[in-house]
Amino acid sequence: MFCVAPGFAEGLSRPATLLVGDLSFLHDINGLNLLRGGELRPPLTVVLINNAGGGIFSFLPIASSIPEDEFTPLWATPQNVDLEAMCRAQGIPHQRVTTPEGLVPALQAAWGINRHSVVEVITDRSTNVELHRRIQAAALRAAQHCHWLASKLDVAVSSSAPSLSLAPVPDSVGQLAEAGSGCRPLVTDGLHWRRYSLPLALPLTTPPMPSSSSNSNSSSGPSLSTGIGVREGLLLQLRLSWTDGSVAGEGVGDVAPLPGLHSETLEEAEVQVAALSGLLDGVTVRPSLALLGGRPGAWLGARVGLDPTWLLPSVSGRSQ
């Protein structure tokens, strides 16, 4: 850490701040030599988080599986070293912070002396674990509440224009939807695409597809400018609108069959993109779709009647 951070500040020609734990600090303790006599160099402020060992293991099942007198020396491995004395021995300014309120003034002081220094922040492993658990519990409650709100939205699309009907839900949910909350449904404004062709700087490492007259514009076609080849594909754009017609956002992506990896041609992939464009025009989208984590296959089947296994690998993004 110390071998890289001073050089990083030097390369930027500006001050830098390094955040490091006590075990990492001790593993690279010889790097303190690089912080000596650096008055003419961009200052590096080292924020040293001292939680008496490796805090990550306190989050693992092993922390509650063995007695504390075994866990601490074998897994947390506190070193019981006077880090302040080590800094002082090298002539490096050192500050010790024991409360959250003391961190800001300590950092301001360190950044103001215009030289390398260390700010040691004392933390507790068990307190850190408890704080993370409270944050995780709060995030889980918020996610579950948003999912519950989204599940109450019953979207109906007419043949002429998208419309929204709400299933019987508590008044608070209906008020949230009408007030413009994040649970309002979205409407797809069609999937648009266009071809692109980029010259390759280096040849592809995959085997080229067999050339044919009907596939002269494939992704591995020759480039007149470089002689190496070109990479061709489809640039996709999907716009989402609110039910009142205002734009909610746009997403971009690409479909580019890779010769030697995908068996389909760009023309075959474009046929499927054109079919998807027709299916995804004016479709309402539940906000809860984001909970699928980028795997909307089941939604495609239920909402637009599309079997996702029908899609070519380069279109669906799945492995060949």
Automatic annotation (TrEMBL):
Thiamine pyrophosphate enzyme TPP-binding domain span: 14-121
Domain of life, source organism: Eukaryota
Feature: compositional bias, Low complexity: 211-225
SUPFAM superfamilies hit by this protein: Thiamin diphosphate-binding fold (THDP-binding)
Region Disordered: start-end pairs: 204-225
One Pfam family in the UniProt entry: TPP_enzyme_C
A GO molecular function held by the record: thiamine pyrophosphate binding
Protein name: Thiamine pyrophosphate enzyme TPP-binding domain-containing protein
Natural source organism: Volvox reticuliferus
